[in-house]
Amino acid sequence: MVDVNQSSNEKNEKNEKTKESINGSFLSSVIKFVFWLVISSALLWNWDGFWQTDIKSLNKVQKNFFPSKYSEEQLKVSRITRNNNLIDDIRKRLERAENRANGKIEKARGERDQALSELEASKSELNRYLEKENTKCRYYDTSLRMIDHLTNKYSEDELKRTLSCTSAECEKILHYRQEATAICD
User: Fold this and answer.
1) Which residues contact 180 (CB under 8 A, 6 or more apart)?
2) Please, are residues 59 and 50 in contact by the beta-carbon 8 Å criterion?
3) Are 165 and 138 in contact (CB under 8 A)?
4) Residue range 7-14: average pLDDT?
5) Does 110 have pLDDT greater than 90?
6) Are 174 and 154 in contact (CB under 8 A)?
7) 177 within 8 A of 140, measured Cβ to Cβ
8) How far apart are CA 185 and CA 183, in angstroms?
9) How far is the C-alpha of 102 from the C-alpha of 51, rounded, in Å?
10) Which three-class secondary structure state does DSSP give residue 167?
11) What is the dihedral sign for C-alpha 147, 151, 152, 158?
């Protein structure tokens, strides 16, 4: 009997171990399932694509069971749309401003080029004028030297008879030599 009791005890122990392992395995499986369910729910809850879907039945479920989250997500969508419109408007205004600025820059470049060409023309005209004036001054200086030569050669009375001054400039040339020479300096 002892053998039968031992085998029956062994069978009972095996059955209990099997039940415990089944219970432990079941409990472990339930915990794993709940863990992955929570992780999946959290991911879905925070995934914008889940809340911004075009699937009608999913939208109805979201509206009915999670109205505050659904409204919050729809507000996000409207804010994003409004922000996109604002960005497009700003971009268009910036492009218009850039076009106006580029037009002004081109106009300013044209005016600058015209001013530079006028400057070059003015410089060349000034150089021609200066060359002409320098030529006049050389003739004037030569005339003054000739008069000096005549004043050395003739006496003052003979010079007055030879040269008759009819203007104030002539008198200055003859009598105020420094003023006459200062004109071309």
Assistant:
1) 144, 172, 173
2) no
3) no
4) 63
5) yes
6) no
7) no
8) 6
9) 45
10) coil
11) positive
